Amino acid sequence: MWAIEHDSREFANKGKPNEVKRVMNMLENKRVLITGVASNRSIAWGIASAMRREGAELALTYQGEKLKSRAEQLAEEVDAQIVLPCDVADDASIDELFSSLRQHWDALDVIVHSIGFAPRDHLEGGMIDHINRAGYASAHDISAYSFIALAKAGRSMMAGRNGSLLTMTYLGAERVLPNYNVMGLAKASLEAAVRYLASDLGPEGTRVNGISAGPIKTLAAAGISGFRGMLTKAGQVAPLRRNVTTDEVGNVAAFLCSDLASSITGEIIYADAGYHILGMYED
């Protein structure tokens, strides 16, 4: 029998899936721009916390003056020295974001896109009964095209850095889920963008991936009709018999944007306690 000595620092805390012992600074010396940190319950916040824990230097964005003070407050908690405005529906605002960012950093390693939007009245009932041209356009513009717009604007700062672009998606991109409707269409577009961007930017050393997280109780998710029931059912039937946390999604994000994932690009990684593998479930 082989005798193997283990360094206890190499292992996560047993029985606490959302609490991980740091074994290395996976993102040390990485400069990371994170969009979508709206509150300390958001997925973007879980990502910001995990990336800071792993040694990243962070910059956060906010939309509108009403959210500025909240963003600055959250930035203090993760030691983010840069907090900048950005309206992803406005190309001029995106250009101004990167112009301002260049005054602080001469290069960028990671862009995290954690933004999605659809009119509330599009997120209930049947899709065909509630969709219209304007709602379709806004959902795709903010939820999908904005990722491409950020990639275009940040391209020159990231070229040759072996960096990463990361976005957040959901199972509704490939399967029909109650009330998700136009957001499912927008997320499908977003996932296609991941693949095309990965192909375009790979020769420059930039990787592009998405995380398909399970349902999480966030402010954004609250806008989906019947979400609480979906959350409860997912936790009951997922193979791990629970829902995921923002901390767990943050850990996956930190890995994907680190050099440990240097061979992974164009992928959608599921962080949903295994729910996506189910064909059906029995009550």
Write up this protein.
By secondary structure, the protein is α/β, with parallel strands linked by helices. It has one domain (25-273): NAD(P)-binding Rossmann-like Domain (Rossmann fold, 3-Layer(aba) Sandwich), CATH 3.40.50. The protein has helices at residues 43-53, 68-77, 91-102, 127-130, 133-158, 182-201, 227-237, 246-256, and strands spanning 31-34, 57-62, 82-85, 110-113, 164-169, 207-213, 268-271. Strands 3-2-1-4-5-6-7 form a 7-stranded parallel β-sheet, with helices on both faces. Helix 3 (91-102) packs parallel to helix 5 and helix 5 packs parallel to helix 6 (182-201).
Q: What's the arrangement of secondary structure elements?
A:
Layout: E1 31-34, H1 43-53, E2 57-62, H2 68-77, E3 82-85, H3 91-102, E4 110-113, H4 127-130, H5 133-158, E5 164-169, H6 182-201, E6 207-213, H7 227-237, H8 246-256, E7 268-271
Helix pairs in contact: 1-8, 3-5, 5-6
Summarize the structure.
This protein is 37% helix and 12% strand. It has 283 residues and is an alpha/beta fold.
**Cα-to-Cα separation, first versus last residue:** 45 Å
Uncertain runs are 1-16
CATH architecture: 3-Layer(aba) Sandwich
What name is given to the CATH topology? Answer: Rossmann fold
Count of DSSP H/I helices: 8
Record keyword descriptors for this entry.
alpha/beta; seven-stranded parallel β-sheet; 283 residues; 8 helices; 37% helix; Rossmann fold
